[in-house]
Amino acid sequence: MSGLTGTGQMVRLFLRLDRIHLPVWVVAIVGIVAASASAVQGVYNTPELRAGYAATVSNSPAAIVMSGPPQGLDSVGGITVFEINLTAALGAALMAIFLTVRHTRAEEEAGRTELLRAGVLGRHAPLAAALVVVGGASLVVGLLIAGSLAGLGLPAGGSLLFGAAMACLGLVFVAVTAVAAQLTEHSRAALGMAVAVLGVSWALRSLGDVRDSAASWLSPVGWVQSVNAYGDQRWWPLLLPLALAAVLTVAAVLLTRRRDVGAGLVPTRPGAPRASRLLSSVPGLALRQQRSSLLWWAVGLFLGGLAFGSFGNEVTTMLEDNPELADMFGAAGGDDLVAGYFGLILLILALVVACFTVSSVHRLRAEESEARAELVLSTRILRRGWQLGWLAVTAGGTVLVLLATGLGVAVADTLVSGSADRFGELLGATLAYLPAVAVIGGLAAALHGWLPRLGVLSWVVLAGCFVVGWLGDLLTIPESVRDLSPFNLTPRLPLEPMGWPVVAGLTAVAALLLALAVLGLRRRDVDSA
Amino acid sequence: MDAPIVVDQLHKSFGSTHALDGLDLTVEQGEVHGFLGPNGSGKSTTIRVLLGLLRPDSGRTTLLGGDPWRDAATLHRRLAYVPGDVALWPGLTGGEVIDLIGRLRGGLDEARRAELLSDFELDPRKKSRTYSKGNRQKVALVAALASTADLLILDEPTNGLDPLMEEVFQSWIHRARDEGRTVLLSSHILAEVEALCDRISIIRAGRTVQSGTLADLRHLTSTTVTAETDRPADGLSRIAGVSDLEHMDGRVTFKVDTDHLDEAIAHLSGLRIRSLQAHPPTLEELFLNQYGDRLPPQDQTPEHADGAGGGHAAGPVGRAAGATTAAAGGEATGEAAGAGRGSARGADR
């Protein structure tokens, strides 16, 4: 029996298991990318319009951080790439990460790999099958993106190159995740490691592109961006991600050989024979369950805040260097530009904080469906106490993570600008999103109370908030639709003035949703499915 | 004082599946009550109703004198529960889980905790995710038995324990009974039920088909007799209550209703008995009898066999057994899907 025996069957099994997941990922990524690209077509028809666009974004660190290097902007294709790069690249990488973890460590953690490996199945077959399926999905995403760009009338060669670049990025993160999955026993930790690699890659390329330094070349994201699909059209940089993917795949295979099924590389140490005082209540249990993930979220978002916050001052510097551009903004003045930059990045960061909140609320469902809640609810703990105990930790954690984010932004801005003038303002502007985040958390809790099996809807709503918040202008989504998102309703401080009635209204909605959640759980069966 | 558990005509549906279809159960103070039924017959669903986790569609359920749905907080101070398939927090050690559950329940007996850990040979310093199924079961058992609860509700508690640990478990249940605690023991390990239980209830398809002491239930069924006689053993088929008659190599084997045993033996002695074996029905036979798998349905309709005189416990055996084939297939998967236990869990399967 070779190490790869049974890979074919495993591939078929994964495709069967993913018959919903895969199409949803692929269609969502390609759909959003195609819609964004389509919105750009026909807008920048003259060289003057394109020059204007290039002048604006080339001087905007915020735009470069979010979108990529300002290159090839003298063509419609180049502008299209600049507009879709974030969605396409993050989409391809995140799909690769989530699906690879799903088929490697998550399967192993659940004990299903053991069952399969006991049959006629080579040691490397599950990993090989995961690489084939998710790698294949990355190629499909790349091809479909290329096809839809060419379909919009962009040059076929450039479209194919951009699609190939996104596929290569996907392959790199399939391999990165495959290695992460060998290192740790837990799928959550593997997911965290791979996402962290993506975050660092993105930060390195942001740094490199904004400062025009070589830092971009340290990042796989930088490599695939350097193809400049509708400009110089370089194919050779794609050899770098392909080589890295190959090396990491070999590493993952070697690591598989060194360990037992189910084990990580780091053996588990014995723990405490007695419970600490913390483990005496539901909030204590909830905190114990989430403390390490909470710590990572807070540290990650603090660093993210530092990174994004440090570019704020660049906006000012750029205006000083470029009086013409400053004139362009005229009466609006440079301060508004800075405020606009912070308004946008704080909105995005608040959406990321909401991801923590939603995933923390969803742990209630996991506790229930994995039947641990049953054990707790057989003691004198009531449903309400169990639910509110967990949600209290979620709420406290959300405040902490949001505070860490705001501190990161404010500290970086203070260090870079050398003045603490904006410190309080930026911190306050971040915390102003707390009610909006609470509404999303409340929605997740209410769904758990009434329709526990439809919890995924809260992710859908959050994705919708991201689309209207980030792509609202590009996709010309009407204001009335955008205002369905609590994040868009929240006053975009420091650009806009504080709107207390809106914030109070959002808080009231969050409280209402929480009350609904309690009511729902009180009425329904505890569902250990 | 009322019986700790009184369940009367309990109904519970999940979608179109009737998981409980008029179930009755009475557990008296201080007894160990065996709760028997095949996979998917509704044992775990009943227990979840008793714990207030599921809301019954209709029927009366009284737990320690209160309503399990309404009075959960006060009732749960007095009970301890062991789920059929124990799920623990993967990052906590066994010792931490035992302490946590004990504290949430309102305290546990320290001396007893230590004794249980050593009896069950459980290492409390290992993370839950590294425990085997049997060890996870032990964690829940230690947490429950170290409590001072009046009522123990155990849902197939020895699932995954080895025979040595099974013995440890049995000695602790004996001890619990000696202390006057009440135990509801759901099981399909018949030897365990036979060794531990004062009374048993047998359910199928969400309905109680028999309830009573083992002796009561035995009385309702037949004794198996094997005999060698000098003269050919003819004429047995004419005796009322004799069934499953088989002749082989001069030996005869048959089953006879307890009421007609005397008559049958008298007939055999007229044929000069050379060897005789008779054994009362094992619990296994009683059990199978209810499900009509191997033994033919009895045509007698027993009186209510509920030893406590509680009323509704026993249904007509014949009817219940007759209905087996029709309902068994659908209901086994039905409860599982309806009660929503996915493939990773299967307390009742």
Structure characterization notes:
- The complex is a heterodimer of chains A (529) and B (349).
- Chain A is an all-alpha fold.
- Chain A has a domain at 1-265.
- Chain A has helices at residues 7-17, 21-40, 47-58, 61-67, 76-103, 105-109, 112-117, 125-151, 156-183, 187-211, 220-225, 239-258, 282-309, 312-321, 323-329, 333-369, 372-377, 383-417, 423-431, 434-450, 456-470, 479-482, 486-489, 500-523.
- In chain A, α16 (333-369) packs antiparallel against α18 (383-417).
- The longest helix of chain A is centred in the middle third of the chain and has 37 residues, at 333-369.
- The two termini of chain A are 37 Å apart.
- Chain B has 349 residues and is α/β, with parallel strands linked by helices.
- Chain B folds into 2 domains: 5-217 and 301-338, 3-Layer(aba) Sandwich (Rossmann fold); 222-280, 2-Layer Sandwich (Alpha-Beta Plaits), CATH 3.30.70.260.
- Chain B contains 12 helices and 13 strands.
- In chain B, α3 (94-105) runs parallel beside α5 (133-145).
- Chain B is elongated.
- Classes of the chains: A mainly alpha (529), B alpha/beta (349).
- Chains A and B meet through α13 and α17 of A and α2, β5 and α3 of B.
Strand content of chain A: under 5%
> Outline of chain A, from the CA principal axes?
globular
Taken in chain order, the helices and strands of chain B follow as EEEHEHEHHHEHEHEEHEEEHEHHH
Q: What class, by secondary structure content of chain A?
A: mainly alpha
Query: Which regions of chain B contain 5 or more consecutive residues with pLDDT less than 50?
Result: 293-349
